[in-house]
């Protein structure tokens, strides 16, 4: 039941689509302040996301894992909104392509800001697949 004190209503949204929506018992995401776990009745929160993994646990015991770019996390009244320019569920990610992207970004050099960002994004995608697997 949406809005109950035992569940969260979660929306994971990328710039071009809704990636995942549903009920959850817990959400874990990485913010600029570190990892944050959200349970029902969590205090209101607005935080900046960093490239990383979002872990969503459903009332049925399922775990959904997504890789996200930097964005925003909002929590209020048992509603969790995760807004990111790019987000992918782990089952949508091609692991070999992600590993290739990581190697290519690492070869581009650490002094290159775009390459550093590409490394963080590829690492997050790989972690999402490995965590879900």
Protein architecture, described:
With 133 residues, the protein is α+β, with helices and mostly antiparallel strands. The protein is built from 2 helices and 10 strands. 26% of the residues lie in helices and 44% in strands. The strands form 2 sheets. Strands 2-1-9-8-5 form a 5-stranded mixed beta sheet, with no helix packed on it. The chain has a 5-stranded antiparallel beta sheet with strand order 4-3-6-7-10, covered by helices on one side. A hairpin with a 2-residue loop joins strand 8 and strand 9 (79-84). The model has no long low-confidence stretch (mean pLDDT 91).
Write a compact overview of the structure shown.
The chain is α+β, with helices and mostly antiparallel strands. The chain is 26% helix and 44% strand. The model has no long low-confidence stretch (mean pLDDT 91).
SSE order and pairing:
Elements lengths: L7 E7 L2 E8 L1 E6 L2 E5 L6 E5 L2 E6 L5 E6 L2 E6 L2 E6 L2 E3 L5 H14 L4 H20 L1
Parallel strand pairs: 1-9
Antiparallel strand pairs: 1-2, 3-4, 3-6, 5-8, 6-7, 7-10, 8-9
Helix pairs in contact: 1-2
